[in-house]
Structure formats: C-alpha cells, structure tokens
Amino acid sequence: MRRPHMERRSRRYTPRQFVSDYETEPPAEGLQQVNIPTHPLDQIADTVLHISEPVSVATKKPTNPPPVSRVRYDPNRPIGFRLSSALGVGHELVENLIKNHIGEDPQREGLRETPKRYLEALKFWTSGYNQNPADILKTFQDGAQGYDEMIFQGELDFFSLCEHHICPFFGHAYIAYIPDGRIVGLSKLARLVEIFARRLQCQERMTAQIADALMENLQPIGAAVVLKCRHLCMESRGVQKVGTITTTSTLKGCFKSEHETRAEFMSLVANASKE
Ligand SMILES: [Zn+2]
Dihedral of CA 258/262/263/264: which sign? Predict the structure, then answer.
C-alpha cells in the first residue's frame, strides 16, 4: 500500500519513480541504493527525473527524526550534480583525481574539503544549463512603438569554462538589436549572457547562441553580438601568450545585410572597449 504522503508526491512525479514498499523491496538488478538522511526528496527527485530512467526515489514520512530519502540509481548511467553530490559520487571522483592524477594527499588539511568546495563551484559555473533564455526574455511593447533605432549594451562581464580544457575563459560581451515592436529590459541582456556563459562552452558557439536567442525571442530586425575573451587554457599553457584577446562576432538580419548598421555597431563596440 502506498502511504498517503507517497500519493501526494506521485501526482507531481510519475509513480514509476517511487517505491511503494519503502522498507523491504530490494532494488532491481543492476541498480544501487543509498539512503540520504537529510537530503530533501524534492531536491533530488527533479534531478532524477531528468537523468536516469531506472531510478526510484522514496521518502519516509516527514516527521521526527527527519525524513530519509532513498535513491536507487544505475551506476552506469550519468547522473546530475545534485544527485551525484548527494550520493558522494562526485566527491570520490575529485578525491581520486587529487590522489592518483595529481599525486597529492587528499586527506591533508588544505585539501580535505576541496572536493566538496570544487563540486559546489562547478555546480555554479555550469548553472546556465538549468535556465531557459525564453524565461528571461519576456518582451514588452510599451515604449517600443516606433522605436527602430539600435539598442546597444557594451562591456557586459562574464566568466565561462572552455569545454576543451574545463578552464576559465572570460571577457566582455557587446550586444545590439534593432527592435521590431518588442523590447526587453536592459538587465535581461546581461542575464542572457550569463545563461550561456555558465556552461561548458566554446566562444564561437556562445556568440551564436546569444544572437540566436535574441532573434528567436524578440524577433528584431537584426541582432549582433561580439565577444572579446581571454582564454586561460591558452595563456597558462599551450602558446602561453598572456593577455591575448580572442574576438568573435555573430551578425543577424540587418546587421548582416546593411553595411551602415554593421559599421555603427562596430564603432559602438570599439568605443565601449576603450572606456
Ligand atoms: Zn581550452
């Protein structure tokens, strides 16, 4: 029999994810099982939902002592951050890396908490995957009537991770669009950059993704994006040229087809870079 609180959960998450007999039912073959004493079920359940098919989550009635979440997972399938940190999987991996690849003692005082800290940082650095540009690019028409001049935002700072070395690259974004009846709050452009920066990225793709998201969500007459970045993978290793700036640009609509519009944008970028 399902307990009443399990029924309530089951409406939000498909029943398949929940095990009715929390106490006795053994996990299906090939699945591993852990009990997580303090981890709230909701936090891991939505992660589980998106990641691994043969996974179940169950919780004891949330009374005193605190609820216990039990997670069954397939160790051969990738699992997300929240789940893997709840299971301590990521923790082991980082410890292993420190010990076997770097040759350091992961138990030494300065390193003992490093796996935990590193995973927390990595979770933040890649938090853009959980965000959808459409959610922040809610447009409004009030104030946009008849405005068909360029809207420009320059020198938006960002930090990202290069997907080839998982090493930081960072710099400035310059964004412009010419509205066709829809505008967006200026702070949203900075947030749009964040969404794509907080992922494993390459600069070229990130430039195109920002421009595509603008075209898709604002349907402007045109959009343009320039990124100027320093890549630490290049500066600290490889060619070891410090301070090299890599510039990429994506031009859409009138920015691509009209020489004057493009020139105006490029001069705004140049001026913004000098400040
Ligand atoms: Zn790199």
Answer: positive
- The Å distance, Cα 120 to ligand 1 centre, comes to 21
- Ligand 1 centroid to Cα of residue 233, in Å, is 5
Average pLDDT of span 180-205: 94
Which residues are found with C-beta within 5 Å of the ion, ligand 1? 162, 164-165, 233
CA-based R_g, the chain, Å: 24
Closest CA to 224 of 132, 170, 150, 135: 150
Domain with CATH 3.30.1130.10 in the chain: 135-274
**pLDDT tens column, 50-83:** 444 445 555 544 444 445 556 666 666 666 665 6
Catalytic residue among 5, 165, 235, 258: 165
For the question of residue 233 being annotated catalytic, the response is yes
Q: What is the pTM of this model?
A: 0.73
Average pLDDT, the chain: 78
- Looking at the domain 135-274, which fold is it? GTP Cyclohydrolase I, domain 2 (3.30.1130)
